[in-house]
Amino acid sequence: MSYSVGQVAGFAGTTVRTLHHYDEIGLLAPSARSSAGHRRYDDADLDRLQRILFYRELGFPLEEVAVLLDDPDSDPREHLRRQHALLSDRIARLQQMAAAVEHAMEAQRMGINLTPEEKFEVFGDFDPDQYGDEAHERWGHTDAYKESARRTASYTKEDWKRFQDEADGINRRFAALLAAGAAADSEEAMDAAEEHRNWIDRNCYTCSHEMHTCLGEMYVADERFTAYYDGVRPGLAVFVRDAIFANAVRKL
To answer: Residue 247: which pLDDT band, with cuts at 50, 70 and 90?
Structure first.
């Protein structure tokens, strides 16, 4: 039995464009073509796609995925064992860091002594006090929260404007890369992710690559963050999350 490219995209939760790209670079060539020349995928193709998507979720660049899958000595069961181990390690690290995750937007709330007019001028429609109680309840005991409170307590209106302008600049850079069709694990996207991490590290609290990946996961898991990033450009939250993870893998 064979499947059309549209059916496979639906099964895998990916896009037809992605499958076309995988075919063009030789990563996943369909086993057959219809009489009209349309791609047809069989069960073996679906198995390979599953392995590709596992590795992509783990942040592996496409070039490395191709090398891993095309190794003549590779064993499909070994691929699954390796992916299970990598996923288990990732889950464990995320769980360890979860208690220390700092709300990225908390930096806009901590120690802010601005009038309502000034807050609107600096932050627009976003109310930095809206998440104050939640942030304190969830992370008030963490070192990151305390460091952020200490460092931002003396911020002036000009400091907050600089902070927000830097954030907007990084978001525009991410959005431009997404619009241009750049991959989340491209050098440009990973460099933007590193700039984002340095922005947090410089302005709020010490942000390791591990903590940064936790923030990236939160941008997708928390619908408020997803709405914030996707409001800049649809799909940006996932793109930023993937770029952050790819950058962490590059660092490791």
So the answer is: very high
